[in-house]
Amino acid sequence: MKAIILKEVGGPENLILADVPVPSIKENEVLVQVKAVAINPVDAFVRRNQAALEMIYALKGNEENIILGWDVAGIVTQVGSTVTRFQVGDEVFGNFNFIGQANAYAEFVAAPEHELVIKPENVSFEEAAGATMAALTAWASVVKFAEVKKGDKVIVYGASGGVGHYAVQIAKHFGAYVVGVASGDNKDFVLGLGADEFFDYKTQAVEDFINDADIVHDAVWVEADVNSTEETHLARSLKTLKEGGILSSIVVYPDQQFIDKAKTERNITVQRVNVTPNDTYLKDMETIAQLLSEGEIKTYTSHVFPLAEMAKAHEIIQTKNAVGKIILVP
Fold first, then answer.
1. Which pLDDT tens digit goes with each residue over 271-311?
2. Does the N-terminal or the C-terminal CB of the chain have fewer CB atoms within 10 Å?
3. Average pLDDT, integer, range 191-218
4. In sequence order, what are the beta bridge partners of 269?
5. The pTM is what?
């Protein structure tokens, strides 16, 4: 089969198309013919960072080929001896083996049955692949951590991005008043997702206008470590929240001093939120599948590339300015 392999840590040019063996499956796995692959900023981070490759990809050092990626949609072509949830021909999607080796940049993948769900018939493979890690992250942030409810005022920073565009839609699904923050070029897109209000982060400081938000979903990337000083982005986000509010950071790890100060001074709960293996994964994915099927959330795809052009896709995703999702098709 064809796959994209990482020949060495570094730039996008190190992702090359190669012929590799079709993976064999374990008794609890299914073999999936991949129809669409979605990429995320973490893919580019792992590609260029040896420590991340070792931890997030779970590099062992004896791999014949390093194949990145975790988000797929496709068709089951083979089932393991203990598999009960799927049969050959089923159309499935999921984000699997994260943290670990999913080897998704390929024409076929071996996936654990408990980390895939049935793709709705009225949803394309491309849309389904996009709504995996990114939609799960938005769900973990807005629903599981922040417990959004009808009438909440929710600020979504990075509202035009892969995670952000799902966060806007999910918050609106629960009846929240949503403030989307992104580049002015994406104003119409963010408002089209259902946001009630829009701020251009390049020209407007949201904290100068809002101080009564219930929830902030913050997806802004900053290079500096987060601390308790007023210069950090998360510190500015705190100013937009009412007392007792919730600040969910999906990129930056706030330090304990920052967390404690927010709680002590204004009873604001701060947490770094990410997708990790847990007992509710299947339930969450099935809910996302249902919302996709009902049209409550939609995947916006800004680029679709053939698998062979993975390097080009990585050039875009690593800018951290990609709109919606980037999808590749074998």
1. 999 887 677 999 999 999 999 999 999 999 999 999 999 99
2. N
3. 97
4. 246
5. 0.95
β-sheet bridge partners, residue 32? 76, 109
How many whole angstroms separate alpha carbon 154 and alpha carbon 174? 11
Judge contact between 268 and 126, C-beta under 8 A: no
Residue pair 7/14 in contact (Cβ under 8 Å)? The answer is yes
Among residues 251, 245, 215, the alpha carbon closest in space to that of 233 is found at: 251
Contact 248, 145 (CB under 8 A): yes
* Neighbour count for residue 24 (Cβ, 10 Å): 10
What is the torsional sign of CA 145, 147, 153, 157? positive
| DSSP-assigned beta bridge partners for residue 108 | 33
167 within 8 A of 291, measured Cβ to Cβ: no
SS3 category, 297? coil
Q: Is 14 exposed, middle or buried (0-12, 13-18, 19+ CB in 10 A)?
A: middle
Mind listing the pLDDT tens digit for each residue in 222-249? 544 334 344 578 889 999 999 999 999 9
Report pLDDT for 106. 98
Any idea which residue has 């927010």 for tokens?
262
Number of Cβ atoms within 10 Å of the Cβ of 190:
25
Residue 217's φ and ψ, nearest 5 degrees, are: -105, 110
Neighbours of 33 (CB within 10 A): 16
